[in-house]
Amino acid sequence: PNTKGQIDFHNVSFTYEGASGEPVLKNITFTCLPGETVGVIGSTGSGKSSLINLIPRFYDVSEGSVEVDGMDVREYNLKELRGKIAVVPQQTMLFTGTIAENIRWGKENATEDEIKRAAAIAEAESFIKAAPEGYDTLLGQGGINLSGGQKQRLSIARALVKQPEILILDDSTSAVDLTTEAKIKKSLKEYAVELTCIIITQRISSIKDADKILVLDDGKLVGSGTHEQLMADCQVYQEIHYS
Ligand code: DUT
């Protein structure tokens, strides 16, 4: 069977090193099938970032196991594992350099075409073209300033240029308007059909059409299903929806 881009959590619990008290994640089990878009929602501190940090092994599980492509993440060579996964962090990290250099960061051998394609999917193309020197425009010190949403789109382009199997967006469209966000998701569906996508968010509109939504509450998985299913049977999800 095709397991490229599949993610499995089996009874995962996680406690940060040196922390006392309750685990941050408690007995979590779920599967993301290859090519699925999975949303993760829950209030602040519910464990969303902690959950996704276990996939590229930024941290190791305390109990249970995480599998990528059907293999325990602890059995991979770290470089190979992380080569499959691109994480767009909550805080965009751009540096002083050109737009192209910023997109290429982490994949220095990316071609011009690959950079442009990644920028197009991330809906960054129009503002890049409008910048004084296009892709050669300098950012940061001595260069132009971008809006928060524009920075997030560059950060998404940077992730896409790596052509990962798994793309993780950690609240990384929070500053992008809803129309642009919808366009990015549509492009991802069209041009990156095999990509497994995990979208962490605080807003339901960002994940309403996801194949599956995971609802976290205080480190527990309290719901899993489509928007419609969760609206019917998950109280925490309904509360987020009506808040
Ligand atoms: N936590 C730590 N150490 C860390 C990171 C987080 O102890 O390095 C705690 C804080 C919190 C819990 O883990 O009690 C879950 O945090 P996480 O950042 O995973 O929650 P979130 O759902 O991603 O919150 P937010 O929406 O604010 O990003």
Give the key terms.
Rossmann fold, alpha/beta, 4-stranded antiparallel beta sheet, 25% strand, 9 helices, binds deoxyuridine-5'-triphosphate, 243 residues
Textual characterization of the structure:
There is one protein chain. The chain has 243 residues and is α/β, with parallel strands linked by helices. It has one domain (7-242): Rossmann fold (3-Layer(aba) Sandwich). The chain contains nine helices and twelve strands. It has helices at 48-53, 78-84, 99-104, 112-121, 125-130, 148-160, 178-191, 227-233, 235-242, and strands at residues 7-14, 25-32, 37-41, 63-68, 71-72, 85-88, 97-98, 138-139, 166-170, 196-201, 212-217, 220-225. The strands form three sheets. Strands 6-9-10-3-11-12 form a six-stranded mixed sheet. Strands 2-1-4-5 form a four-stranded antiparallel sheet, with no helix packed on it. Helix 4 (112-121) packs across helix 6 and helix 8 crosses helix 9. The relative contact order is 0.19. Deoxyuridine-5'-triphosphate binds next to helix 1.
